Amino acid sequence: MTTIYPLIICGGNGTRLWPLSRTQSPKQFQKISGPESMTFFQVAVQRHRGPVYQNPVIVTGVIHRGTVVKQLREIQSKAQIICEPVGRNTGPAVLAAAHVIARKDPDALFVVIPADHVIEGQLTETIEACIPAAQTGHIITFGIAPRYAETGFGYITDAGPLAGFDTVRQVGGFVEKPPQDEAQALIDSKSAYWASGLSMFSAKTIIEEYQKFDPKTAGHVIASVECGSDTPEAMYLNEAEFVEAVAEPTESAVFEKSDRIALAPLDVSWNDVGSWLAMYNISQPDNDGNVLQGDVIALNSVNTMVRTDTRLVSVVGLSDIIVIDTPDALLVAKMDKTQSVKAVVEQLKASHRTETEIHANSGPTMVPFHKQDELEKLVETDRFHLGTAEIEVGRTILLDRGPRSQQVIVVQGTVYASGPGWNKTTAEGGRIYADEVDKVRILNSGDTKVELLFVTLENADVVKQNGPIAING
User: Fold this and answer.
1) How do residues 151-170 score in pLDDT, each as one tens digit?
2) Rounded distance between C-alpha atoms, residue 293 and residue 307, angstroms
3) What is the C-alpha separation between 328 and 472, in angstroms, rounded?
4) The CATH number of the domain where 139 resides is what?
5) Are residues 257 and 298 in the same domain?
6) Omega before 106 cis (within 30°)?
7) Mind listing the pLDDT tens digit for each residue in 77-114?
8) Do 346 and 384 fall within a single domain?
């Protein structure tokens, strides 16, 4: 029996779901409907488990590997993890995965799955019916019957039956985010579908087509695999090669140019959850139309969404409002203005605010015990300070700007450190120095708790009440 590799791409920043989604903890790793639910990523993995599927292939950034491993463990799923040193859009990510899997399974079939969409319905049956078309070299893109004239989605037009196949059809063309009148015309034609982001093809086909349309990128991607580091925990692509790949989505790099493209309509409920309004629409409201997640009291309020993970939030007399509360940022917006959240994030980025990248936490967890807002001090003299701290998987600490006499030694685990114009991954015994230009971010990029030793020389003022670091999640 032919089986399919679910290929899940865990990239993107999810800025439209700020303040829940941040650069270092994007939308796909957030819980869909509150503290007790699974994350978008976990639901995507669960959706594609069963006899027709192999273990998933996950492509993600180095900084997210630990989070991926942790969330896979929570749902008892194994996976082949491929780590990108830098993001280059979906095209190079898909191509790298094809090369990695083709080395052990030359006949591998993939179904590419967005990590952050919500899909309900008989998806696997349609995917399974497309196996013969994929085996004969077709690239199948899955379309959703449009419910309204959405200008934020891409469209695929249907050009009629594809000879020899009952499930797939010819593609007339692709239309990327059309204006309102053009979107309505596509709806009225009854021959257009929303582009779902799902696709299916063999590893051999996508490798051949990429070589045809962008041989330079194809060469760099295969070199990034061949020169990469294949370890038991992940395949790490070679940065020097991968960074040279053109950052382009698979659709424009290959699909829109290929004569092998085909369309398979899907009869499912689908939402790309690209805004807080979309999050409200996929949630189950109460009798007043309210979606209340977390410790929330709502009085005389209707058609309102309130989400809080850390504290009590009370609202009175609201209508058609979104309230998202996190420890370091609060969003209040009208339902019909939630697409503008992205503009808020751009403004925060322009001001170099860390709230766009990481979540704040109430305080660090120290070794061997917790002491609010301080490092656990092991030694403290006028000229020498020694302290310790821990970082949970997927969490970040910020090392304040300062001289190289302030340094961090990794005692246990693996971290990804980045400063102004530089980054590196280091494990046990590795050192990270403070930067005189800006703060240094130290992320637990592994799958176990990290232990750090903080050493400060010749500067007795570094360890004060607030310590030389601020811990963030």
Assistant:
1) 888 899 999 999 989 889 99
2) 5
3) 10
4) 3.90.550.10
5) no
6) no
7) 999 999 998 889 999 999 999 999 999 999 999 999 99
8) no
Tell me the average pLDDT of the chain.
Answer: 86
Instruction: Compute CA distances 283 → 14, 18, 44, 277, 303, whole Å.
Output: 18, 18, 17, 10, 12
Helices (DSSP H) in 265-368: which residue ranges? 276-282, 341-350
Q: How far is CA 236 from the centre of its chain?
A: 17
Same domain, 242 and 281: no
Question: How do strand 330-334 and strand 139-144 relate by DSSP bridges?
Answer: unpaired
Structure-derived torsion over alpha carbons of residues 249, 251, 253, 257, reported in degrees to the nearest 10? -170
Q: What's the domain range around 437?
A: 376-472
Q: Residue 363 falls within a domain, yes or no?
A: no
The domain boundary, picked from 238, 271, 304, lies at 271
Q: Taking Cα atoms as reference points, which of 368, 364, 378 lies closest to residue 454? A: 378
Dig out the tokens for 371 from the structure: 């002491």
Is 156:266 a contact under the CB 8 Å cutoff? no
Can you tell me which residue has the tokens 């469209």? 155
Task: Spell out the long-range contacts of 289-296 with Cβ–Cβ below 8 A and sequence spacing 24 or more.
Answer: 293/33, 293/34, 294/34, 294/35, 294/325
CA dist., res. 277 & res. 342, Å (int): 13
Same domain, 126 and 22: yes
**Domains identified in the chain, total number:** 3
Q: Which parts of 302-392 fold into alpha helices (H)? A: 341-350
Beta-bridged to residue 158, according to DSSP, are 171
**Cis-peptide, bond into residue 161, ω within 30° of zero:** no
Question: What's the residue count for the chain?
Answer: 473
Among 271, 297, 398, which Cα is nearest to 306's? 297
* DSSP string computed for 78-109: --EEEEESS---HHHHHHHHHHHHHTT-TT-E
Answer yes or no: is pLDDT of 452 > 90.
no
